Amino acid sequence: MCPAPLLPQPQVQLIAAIEGCDYLSAIAEDRHVRGMPDCEAIRRSVAADANSRVHVLSRKVADSLRAVFAHQFGFLRWTDTAHAGSWIATVHLNQVNRRNRGTDGTFEVTLRSPAGVDTASEAHSLEKFVAIEQLYHQPKTEQAASAIAAQWADAVRDSLESKDGFRRGNLVRHLFSNIPIATLTPAQAKPSAEGQIMWATVPVRDSDIRVKPSHRPTFVWHVEKLERGAVDDEAEFRLGECTGKQGYLCKMLKLRYGGAPFEKEQIKQFFETPTQFHPPIALHVVEYRPAAVVCARQGVIP
Q1: pTM of this prediction?
Q2: Does residue 98 register a pLDDT over 90?
Q3: How many angstroms separate the CA atoms of 127 and 272, rounded?
Q4: What is the phi/psi pair of residue 261, to 5°?
Q5: Dist CA 140 CA 123 (whole Å)
Q6: What Å distances lie between residue 217 and 53, 101, 103, 220, CA to CA?
């Protein structure tokens, strides 16, 4: 069992939405399919029926996907309920051609911020149409629904892990990096110098975010107000090459202050002018690779 994290993980509600025309036609009750003029009419009919087995299967899919996302994106806490200030991730199970039947299955993820702003991923391949065709012949039972949900969750996991985690990396960079994993105080985000390198403290351990020491993430500090001399502006620090066990010490790899970029020894020179951080200081994960095994013994990830 992993030790309690140094900082509470942000909660993300994960839900699933079955939207592809063939998916709906194969799974929904006859009353939603028979006599409907097009795919959009089927979607509206299913959406209006809270008791449709499509919604039952969607909940099973979400339950299965939470376990997948907890491993693939272990720096976030995936839940089935929303809380005040929660982010909401929706996995859409669709098809290449949303308006017509007969095309391959896809999935995409939409992330909704607490302010109600949506950001969507690109569509990723889920399964071939020949697999979707088999759904028309599946029994409409609880056991069959559980098997379908597990099958789709496995397909999503395989997609995320393929090509050395390329799709997982895209989702982290373009979606989940928007979620701050912590809001730090200036005391917690105090930079330090060693030679020509500037370092930043990050109150995170390997077990907190499910990574191996050899694959620690790259982070970003986003500072809404940083005073430097007589100027104040937004600042963004890219942090990586982290060391340490009971909290990280990470190199400042890049800095953008206002519109100006700084790298390497320029970052040290930047801090030669007196600076002051003002809260909030948001900590984000921008590159991530999960460990295969989490806390196998004594909270250590091998």
Answers
A1: 0.91
A2: no
A3: 55
A4: -90, 150
A5: 28
A6: 40, 41, 37, 10
